[in-house]
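Example record

One chain of 275 residues, shown exactly as stored in the release files.
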Amino acid sequence: MTAQIANAQQTAGSTALEVVKGFLQNVRSGKAPEQAARYMADTVIAHQVKSEHPEIIRRTPQHYTEHVHEFLTQYGAYTLEITEIIAQHNKVYVRWKQTGKHTGIINGYAPTGLPLTEISSMVYQVENGKITEYWVQTDRLGLEEQLKHNQQAAAVKTGGKAPYTAAVAANGLLYVSGQIGTDAGGNLVNTSFEVEAQQVMQNLGNVLQTHGLAYNNLVNVTIYLTSMQQYAAINEVYSRYFTGAFPARVCIAVQELPKQARVEIAAVAALQAVK
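Predicted structure tokens for this chain:
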């Protein structure tokens, strides 16, 4: 009986391994996300760590197909390298490295077109030839550091093309030139006003960070809008970037901005922490 159980477990492990390999190579790789139903049960329980807080969600094959398309939007035609895979009974442990380029918004960071690598570990449970449950954990801190680095690199790369300096320090203050919503290639990110405004704030943050400062160092901000109809929208985006008291501010409507931008923000920051 013991030998029969061992043989059954070995067979289950072999089947589970083949299912997971097929799923990773065809679906999670982005090559054929529409084949998710071939490898996944009608409902799959997903255990995820998001912002270091665990959550449990239920995914259908269709949902997972959409999930992979999101990755393709964010990372472009990425590559998925399996660095380790171990099967035991009906569970398979996998560690992979996903490498692509930052082509879509990730964690609020606008695309820079620069390389990104995401490292994750997974455990898949397979029953009756289909994935029924999985546990995933991603190196989110590593990804966040890459996103920050890329934004800084993008800000430096696009600087100096016009006759002005991104920021000038004088008398204990940092004067930051007007920032618009351009990406690493100097193209305006304007799929929506919110996306454009996020890019503006991120560009402002990049300039601050290169001087060792953060949003809370700001003491005065000037916002230029081509339409006051966007006043509520800019306030909503702008508010996300501050903790504690807001800096002094003025918001002005203008007829036109560079590159047909809808919002531009200039600022003054204290070189010492604002209490």
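Notes: The chain has two domains: 2-146, 163-270.
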